[in-house]
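Milestone 3.1: sequence recovery, worked example.
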């Protein structure tokens, strides 16, 4: 018994020793893991944070963070901050006049907020702050309400402020429209689409057997074979002739992407007024036949008295998919070229303020109209007070009513709200900075932030900005060049099928480029023989029809202040007597001369490109001249202005009266701040913003604050190569603002990016070639996965200067 007890004690000691060893082992393992994690964290911290900061510091650049906190004191043009939006929401729900209820679902018969955004300060007040350092004017918000709760429903706009401590609100009106907008003109909303879906449920229930037999799918309870109705066509009063809100909705098989799989089933909804119980189906189109009610179609289908449609759900992968197809290239899995920033970022961004190579500007994202730039300066001189996108419009053609009237003014669905989700390494370089935009609209109860609404990056365009190679002895044998390296601020706006890329590009010589690019899916239609005059048949039941796309921009010039002039330099042939230098009798010689044409009033500024009369458009202040008495000016150059083919006053054309001219110049006014409005899809008969009225008063534009309204655009006739996506090649209209005698010489001569080489000695001797890099090494070795051997950029450069 004693031996057993001793054995038990010995066993317990052994077990205790094992337990202690296991505990020690576990502790040791935890310590090792902690040390490894600490080392890994330190390495990551250094590589991702400290090393880029050192590189940026070495390059003399202020480090830029994409995750900056919002400023406690926002700048003049900064979008509403989350804190301001929080205060705004608290204020709105306390004011009984707005009749908001956060506890009840939003309907068109209630009062609800449609959107809110910054209300821009008057320019005069802003300039007092920018120029004279006066106290900044109070920041205000503009809020749009749908007032379906009123006896006569309307859309109201209010200005609310100051946002630091809100105490007031006032109804916003202008000289163009002295009352709230009619409810008929309201932009499309989530609340309205919910009512469409409610009506569609009834249609689906009544026509279940018709839809399944005809299209192998239905709208609801459909598992993987579904129909969708997302695309719509507004039938404005200008088209219908009656002040009633009607909308065509198109049906498609639900595939990737649905727009390429239309079926011959369309519904015209009557959505007039503020009482959803009165909304109804006005017409149903089925295989070329129309019915007033779903029940009438169901009865006729069962009776066999109509032409039946058969369009089965696609079995194969649809042509609209973005999966690869065809013989892939390159043959080997070789990565594409990548651009790097070997010394860190060379631009500086503090919140929404950017400085770069002599440039300086602020930017924001308007919920309604998209990207806007303010206070754009070059070399300390303000060039532009405001540069902003105003509207994007697409007018389509077709035989059937939903094709024919498919005219879209994109501010109707809020341009800035649809600028989001930029993809690093695809939409923008991987090294780009990404900047967020916050919106509070009817889509969400609270403000929503999209982290990648803008991207900002520096890149090489791949071509020299300037260069010359003098390679023989007589010309001195030297080489000098500057690569065109630019800063790009980009936003991409995606509305339904269309993607619109908007770039603001800053060149080192003081030129500012604004470029738009069109891509995305074409608006494919259901093919039928009468559609042939509007487009080409691309697949068995698919046609791509002709469309007109227009982008309107506002350029508020401030060339040496607000007292500006606009003139054109017109080029024309000039025939002169050549008897002094020719033996022929009555000899003539023709060359080209230019004449200056000062524009005095607004109607004299209207410009539509005429290649037989080439022009320079010049903006300047008469009090600032060169040594030789010429104005220090900026030139506006339009590459890709829209040729507007629609007849004035027909259909929806008055909604885009700004597109009648590639450029118009007006005297700047605070109540003429926008060329379009969120109501433009519906208000053709009584425009809320009538751009034509900006011109019709024909005011003087001499020595005053000038705004140029520029329309870029193109006509697109779809082709088979546009499947699945439209290529942006050939669809990149742009305009430039370039210095014109503004500086005494090319300001890019100060850029360290330049290279100069000169050859002093005997041909063939490498030692006698001098390379000047101006302090910036042109020999790049990437410290990343692309690391390569150190290769001389200028190997064998003596051959550049061989005598000829």
């Amino acid at each position: 018994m004693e031996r057993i007890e001793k054995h038990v004690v010995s066993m317990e000691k052994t077990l205790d020793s094992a337990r202690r060893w296991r505990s020690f082992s576990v502790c040791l393992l935890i310590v090792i893991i902690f040390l490894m994690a600490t080392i890994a964290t330190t390495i990551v911290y250094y590589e991702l944070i400290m090393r880029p900061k050192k590189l940026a510091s070495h390059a003399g650049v202020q480090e830029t963070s994409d995750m900056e906190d919002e400023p406690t004191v926002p700048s003049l043009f900064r979008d509403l901050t989350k804190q301001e939006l929080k205060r705004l929401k608290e204020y709105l729900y306390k004011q009984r006049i707005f009749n908001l209820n956060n506890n009840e679902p939003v309907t068109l018969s209630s009062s609800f907020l449609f959107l809110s955004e910054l209300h821009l300060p008057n320019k005069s007040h802003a300039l007092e702050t920018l120029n004279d350092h006066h106290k900044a004017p109070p920041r205000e918000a503009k809020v749009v309400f749908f007032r379906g709760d009123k006896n006569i429903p309307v859309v109201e706009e209010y200005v609310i402020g100051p946002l630091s401590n809100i105490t007031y609100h006032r109804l916003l009106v202008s000289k163009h429209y002295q009352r709230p907008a009619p409810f008929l003109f309201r932009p499309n909303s989530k609340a309205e689409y919910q009512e469409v879906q409610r009506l569609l449920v009834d249609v689906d229930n009544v026509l279940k057997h018709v839809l399944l037999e005809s299209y192998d799918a239905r709208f609801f309870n459909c598992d993987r074979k579904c129909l969708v109705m997302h695309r719509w066509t507004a039938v404005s009063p200008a088209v219908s002739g009656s002040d009633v809100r009607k909308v065509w909705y198109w049906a498609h098989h639900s595939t990737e992407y649905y727009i390429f799989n239309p079926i011959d089933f369309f519904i015209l909804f009557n959505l007039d007024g503020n009482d959803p119980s009165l909304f109804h189906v006005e017409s149903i189109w089925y295989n070329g036949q129309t019915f007033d009610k779903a029940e009438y179609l169901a009865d006729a289908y069962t009776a066999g008295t109509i032409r039946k449609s058969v369009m089965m759900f696609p079995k194969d992968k649809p042509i609209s998919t973005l999966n690869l197809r065809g013989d892939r290239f390159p043959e080997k899995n070789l990565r594409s070229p990548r651009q790097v920033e070997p010394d860190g970022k060379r631009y500086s961004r503090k919140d929404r303020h950017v400085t770069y190579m002599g440039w300086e500007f602020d930017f924001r994202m308007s919920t309604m109209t998209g990207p806007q730039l303010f206070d754009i300066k070059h070399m300390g001189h303000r060039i532009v007070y405001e540069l902003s996108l105003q509207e994007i419009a697409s007018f389509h053609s077709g035989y059937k009513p939903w094709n024919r009237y498919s005219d879209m003014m994109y501010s109707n669905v809020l341009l800035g709200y649809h600028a989001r989700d930029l993809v690093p390494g695809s939409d923008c370089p991987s090294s780009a900075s990404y900047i967020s935009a916050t919106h509070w609209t009817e889509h969400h109860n609270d403000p929503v932030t999209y982290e990648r609404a803008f991207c900002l990056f520096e890149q090489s365009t791949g071509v020299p900005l300037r260069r010359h190679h003098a390679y023989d002895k007589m010309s001195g044998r030297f080489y000098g060049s500057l690569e065109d390296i630019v800063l790009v601020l980009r936003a991409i706006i995606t509305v339904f099928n269309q993607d619109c890329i908007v770039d603001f590009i800053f060149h080192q010589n003081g030129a500012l480029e604004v470029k738009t690019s069109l891509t995305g899916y074409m608006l494919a239609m259901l093919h039928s023989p009468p559609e042939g005059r509007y487009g080409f048949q691309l697949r068995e039941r698919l046609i791509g029809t002709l469309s007109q796309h227009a982008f309107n921009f506002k350029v508020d010039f401030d060339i040496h202040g607000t007292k500006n002039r606009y003139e054109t330099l017109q080029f024309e042939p000039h025939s002169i007597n050549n008897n002094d230098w020719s033996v022929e009798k009555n000899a003539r010689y023709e060359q080209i001369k230019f004449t200056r044409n000062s524009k005095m009033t607004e109607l004299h500024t209207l410009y539509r490109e005429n290649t037989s009369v080439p022009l320079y458009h010049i903006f300047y202040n008469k009090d600032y001249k060169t040594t030789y008495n010429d104005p220090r000016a900026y030139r506006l150059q339009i590459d890709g202005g829209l040729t507007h083919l629609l007849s004035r006053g027909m259909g929806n054309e008055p909604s885009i009266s700004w597109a009648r001219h590639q450029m118009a110049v007006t005297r700047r006014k605070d109540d003429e701040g926008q060329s379009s409005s969120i109501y433009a899809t519906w208000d053709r008969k009584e425009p809320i913003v009538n751009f034509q009225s900006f011109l019709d008063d024909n005011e003087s534009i001499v020595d005053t604050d000038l705004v140029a309204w520029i329309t870029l655009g193109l006509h697109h006739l779809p082709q088979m190569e546009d499947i699945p996506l439209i290529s942006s090649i050939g669809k990149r209209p742009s305009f430039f603002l370039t210095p014109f005698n503004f500086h005494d010489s090319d300001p890019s001569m100060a850029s360290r990016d330049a290279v100069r080489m000169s050859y002093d000695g005997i041909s063939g001797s490498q030692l006698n070639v001098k390379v000047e890099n101006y302090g910036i090494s042109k020999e790049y070795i990437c410290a990343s996965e692309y690391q390569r051997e150190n290769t001389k950029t200028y190997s064998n450069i003596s051959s550049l200067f061989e005598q000829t």
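The longest helix spans residues 2-58. The CA atoms of residues 192 and 284 lie 19 Å apart.
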